[in-house]
Amino acid sequence: MTPVTPSIAGRSVHELPTPFAVLDDAALEHNLATMAAWCREHGVELQPHGKTTMAPALFRRQLAAGATGITAATPAQVRVMREHGVPSVQLANELAQPGEAAWVAGEVAGGGFGFRCWVDSPDGVEILQAAAAAGGAVVDVLLEVGSPGGRSGTRTKADRDAVRSAIDRAPNVRLTGVAGYEGSVAGDRTAPSLAAVRSYLETLRAAGEEVAGDVDGALVLSAGGSMFYDVVADVLTGGGARVIVRSGCYVTHDSGMFHRNSPLDGPDAPARLRAALTVWGTVVSAPELGRAFLDVGRRDASFDQGLPIPLAVLPRGSAEVVPLDGAEVTALNDQHAFVALPDGTALAVGDRVQLGISHPCTTFDKWRRIPLAGPDGVVTDVVETWF
Ligand SMILES: Cc1ncc(COP(=O)(O)O)c(C=O)c1O
After folding, report:
1. Which residues of 137-148 are buried (b: 16+ CB within 10 A; e: fewer)?
2. In sequence order, what are the residues at sequence separation of 6 or more whose Cβ sits closer than 8 angstroms to the Cβ of residue 104?
3. Alpha carbon distance 101, 196 (integer Å)
4. CA torsion angle for 56, 59, 60, 66 (degrees, to 10)?
5. Which of 94, 189, 224, 260 stands 20 to 30 A from 346 (CA)?
6. H and E: helices and strands count for the chain
7. Is 225 near ligand 1, meaning CB less than 6 Å away?
């Protein structure tokens, strides 16, 4: 977590001390536009998950590109979004803390704040009702649909009916639709995974039909992380509901899990997202043939969904970044990357190496300030994160 100060604006990223993460502005802009176009074509709204970046400057760009709100996972994230002027937030969780529910009720009662959260239990409805009534607010909710053995969310129709009855008894809680997260059902796009995701989404659609009569105005159906939004659009659109997808990772995409598993990557994709977040390190040791060590570790880059991927090298003393094919990070320590090199490839002490990442969320949260680089690698701005 090396601090990078705003004074770096105007400098080349190749002058910055490693390790550092960097955002490629052109790739970001491409991803914002590509996803916005995809959502328009498929008749869905986008409320990107903000926990991916927790970067208000990126929330503003997502909203400017057409997102109708930002999704949060925790009340603290909602507060950050609210403090930074996000006009509409979907809390993709039950609001189970009375104190935070009271704060939300106050914000909603104050006006100018579009908010909805999920509920999956009568207890959750009761907590929200008490806070909303005390604060003089009516709080919108989505009934969460889970899956057996999965994450949060109602399991059965009987569970859903129990939550609906609780909402009926709660005059300050308004049901607006159903929501869920198909990403907890599967983690890749193999045929069995896609079938499991489709079946889960069919249950979610059916749950929407169950509650449609309870909802005034347009029924909301919300699902969709970054791996299956095509299946979400396929299963949930066409019935007149407002379908809201919540992909967070599309904004930077990656060189690992989403590169392999995104609906917008790969040879058959209708358009391709680009990896906009990378991490640079320096070779600090090359003590054996076929082996080099970088000053990048678990402090600096994601490792929960695959290790970083060597992309390119800037040899010491050179001005030209060249591809680094066939190299592999085989392990990370806190502040070291172990790089295995193919026959015929060498790295020397002082070379600078660009690493792709797998899973943007867990690289963003390692950095408080991330340089934004323009076309020729010149830093144009610094993006702050608020984890
Ligand atoms: C409820 C919910 N919605 C949306 C997302 C965003 O998905 P992704 O990280 O694939 O962009 C997540 C991610 O964990 C999530 O938990």
Report:
1. bebbbbbbbbbe
2. 75, 78, 91, 95, 115, 117, 131, 137, 139
3. 34
4. -170
5. 260
6. 10, 18
7. yes
CB of 181 within 6 A of ligand 1: the answer is yes
The closest residue, in CA terms, to atom 13 on ligand 1 is 225
Which ligand 1 atom sits nearest the alpha carbon of residue 93?
A: 1
Is the pTM of the predicted complex or chain greater than 0.90?
yes
The residue whose CA is least distant from atom 2 of ligand 1 is 181
Which ligand 1 atom is nearest residue 249's CA?
11
pLDDT tens-digit series, residues 269-324? 999 999 999 999 999 999 999 999 999 999 999 999 999 999 999 999 999 999 99
Question: Length of the chain, please?
Answer: 387
Contact 336, 231 (CB under 8 A): no
The domains located in the chain, with CATH, are 6-21+272-384 (2.40.37.20), 26-256 (3.20.20.10)
80, two tokens: 């950050």
pLDDT of 189 strictly over 90: yes
Report the first-to-last Cα separation within the chain, whole angstroms.
13
